Amino acid sequence: MGSTKLKVKDESKERLKEEKLKEKKEKPKVEKKEKEIRQIVRVIGTDLDGTKSLKISLTKIKGISHSMSNSIINSLGFNPLMKLGDLDEQQLQKVEDAIKNPANYGIPSWSFNRKHDLATGADLHLSGPDFDITRKFDIQRMIDLKTYKGGRHMLGLPVRGQRTRSKFRGGRSVGVVRKATRVAMAASGTEEKKEEKPKAAPAKEEVK
Asked: Is residue 165, in this structure, part of any structural domain at all?
């Protein structure tokens, strides 16, 4: 009797195992579709890396520092650690509008990079291509007015009183060529050969 009960138990266990295996095979696998992150996102005429965080990627735009990027993100209520590629078109438009018109989003004017504009007198924040164009016009205006800063810009020298003895020494270096470099130049054939001067003919003796 005992042996028959054991056999029945073993058979029931095997049946349960077989049923579980069938259920696993019959169940269709549900594939989780992960949202694709855009690799490159264009904001204010600049291609940004979509895999980086919103806080870091905005600093790659000219005219936007870390503090300005933080203030833009906080004003919009976005998570600074979210990926830039996860933003949809509407969110990207909000980011662009906040960069162009930061005053409309409650960002203080002391954080702008162009206060009291010469043409309008308003406090502006320039970014992207506008930053480069306005900078060029400002330098050209100083050159046309023949100011000290304009002259330094024209000559390619430091404008804000830096020393020029140990820095800003661009161009070809003029000085003594060391022996090791001269040997290397001679080996490569770059050193010009000195032209030998023709020997002067001996002076003829005067015949008396």
From this structure: no
Closest residue by Cα to residue 67 from 102, 115, 117? 102
Give the structural domain span for 73: 40-109
Q: Take residue 71 and report the two structure tokens written for it.
A: 């203030």
Tokens encoding 16 = 């349960």
- Distance, CA of 64 to CA of 72 (rounded, Å): 10
Does residue 29 belong to any structural domain of this protein? Answer: no
Tell me how many degrees the CA angle 88-90-95 measures, rounded to the nearest 5: 95
The alpha carbon of 129 is separated from its chain's Cα centroid by a whole number of angstroms, namely 15
Per-residue model confidence as pLDDT tens digits over 177-207 = 566 777 777 777 755 555 555 566 666 665 5
Could you give the CA distance from residue 61 to residue 43 in angstroms, rounded to a whole number? 8
Per the structure, how many domains does the chain have? 1
Say what the pTM is.
0.59
CATH code, domain carrying 80? 1.10.8.50
How far is Cα of residue 82 from the mean position of the Cα atoms in its chain? Answer: 19
